[in-house]
Amino acid sequence: MEYAYVRLLHLLAAHPAWTLMVVFVAAFLEAIAVIGTFVPGSTAMFVAGALVGAASLNLAWVFVWAIVGAILGDGVSYWLGSRYKDRIVQVWPFRTHPQVLSAGHRFFAKHGAKSVVFARFIGPLRAIVPVVAGMLGMAPMRFYAINILSALLWAPAHILPGVVFGASVRLAGAVSFRLAVVILLLVGIIWSSARLARAALLYANARASTARRRLAIWAHQRKGVARRIVLSMLDPSRPAAGGIVAASLMVLLSAWLFFVILEGVIGGEPLVRLDVSVYHFLRSVRTSWGDVIISVFGILGSITTLAAIVVVVAGWMVWERRWRTVGYWLICVGFSQLLIVAIQLAIHRAPPDKLTTDFNVFPSNHVAAATIVYGFLAFLLARRVGRLERLFVAMTSVVFVVVIALAGVYFGRFWLSDAVGGATLSAVWVAIVALITIWRNPDSPSSKRFLPVIMLLLVSAVVMVQINVNPGILAPDSARRPALILVTQALWTGSLSRTLPCFRFDVAGERGEPFALQWAARSDQIRSQLRTRGWIEGTDISARSLLSLASPDAAAMALPVLPELNDGVPSPLNFKRPGNTRGERDVLRLWQSGYAVNHVDGASPVPIWVGSLSHEQLTHGPWPFNILRVEPLNDVQPEGRGRWLAGTAVAQLGNVDCVGTAVSMLESL
Q1: Based on C-alpha coordinates, what's the Rg of the chain?
Q2: Which family does the entry's similarity section mention (predicted)?
Q3: What share of the chain is helix, strand, coil (3-state, %, to 5)?
Q4: So where are the chain's domains?
Q5: How far, in Å, CA of 542 to CA of 53, rounded?
Q6: Could you point out which of 176, 281, 440, 524 has its C-alpha 20 to 30 Å from the C-alpha of 360?
Q7: How far apart are CA 95 and CA 121, in angstroms?
């Protein structure tokens, strides 16, 4: 169904009126009972938003038609429930799946009229709650008032992310690949962190229930002190029973993950290869404005920010007369930092950018301190708010820790595994303190739902003060790039050509396609000389090219050429040319080798590039996307050279064998 929607919107991109009709129908059908389960209206809204961002549709009209469709769809479901309240339980699928209506009844009973708004964002209940509202006799005026409000919230929530995506893709195609990388990286971090926090809570709840049952069975089979302690802990009347089990599981899970990372760091491959690839990738996409953005995230984990949180939380605990909680927390911070220093001295792991710091970096004490401060703050807040606020607190804390870790890895202060190691080790101590606190104080403190907002405003204020007082805190490191190593032409064609990499290596360290050529040229020379031979430059990232991935009749040349990674570095130069048929194309990707030819005539040094040539064949399958099958391109061999470089000002300096691969050495004249 989603494939059909993507294909339809792609075909209608040039006809805004028809596309808006598709948006209306998708929003309408998604809200209809039974039918809405099979209609991916959210996907259609996102794709329509992407077309808005790509300047193919008008945002105001997309909003209007989506909102009208959603209101009418919920209205029809409400009418069905009101009109056939006594007979609807006999209609499929409610007749064979009565639990669907039961879930809607429970949700409506718990949240009342607000359930009409909440259900808009919950897939299984989206089209059921309006039916239940009609069956239970909710007043029409009240229902339609809330129905309109829910549609006004639902449409922007599903359309605007697509608009941002489409606009960023369009801007990336006009500006640079780096912009797209940074935008997608930030969006991906926020999205994945939120999903991680939600999944962790669901996993902890499920595991806590299972562990509680097993412990209860085990305790009933025992006698003595262990039986009394376990049964007391699992007593349903004990308010902290679930929290104790969840904290215990978090201790075990975090400790296990830390030792997995520790084993990988000590053992080396493949974790070290992953660290190097991630570092090289982030270094390759660094820009001055990217440094500023990431620096703002780094301020969340600065000593000033963390100290301000510690002081405020300590004062808060003292005011509530929770002396032991303050003591546990301070002991946790101190002991964990001592343990981390001891591990660092034992392992002696240097940071990727030794100019930034001379400290040992595994595990990262910076990420560990941030995890302890924000983790313990999240624990204190979660005990004082409701379920929805608790989810917000968990998601925000995870996002903060992740972006703090990203800033450190981005600026080369520590490796990715150092950040994960620091976070997991400190999570053990946070869970232990939470476990002790819950055990000694099982009753939840009085509700203070406004506290998360206050703490968020406090953190924002501290960050802004630091930026105003010390503007240099933004982009603390310039986007340094290693200088090219200068060599003579004789040295390159002699010994150096045999030491350059023969193959591309992906992020995981797996060997990719061979580097079949080495080319000494400026980037502008490469562009102009290839253009004369029919090569088209660029990744061609646009809303239309991305939608071509799902088009059933797209040509191979219409699909975007995505950069590939070599040790984490994306290929900065990418070219394509038509093949023998509409479904074929040749692709050339080039990376800088780190060397440059220094001519004796005083001319500027010329970078040496390594490149891979591949032949891509478009294939179709049961999946809803076009797939390009990649094969090596053999015309890079000397006998086929004329077909792709003949007539250009390029000298062929010879060939060298590199692990069975014939590598051609070229130089632009």
Answers
A1: 30
A2: Belongs to the DedA family.
A3: 60, 10, 25
A4: 2-173, 177-473, 485-668
A5: 10
A6: 281
A7: 25
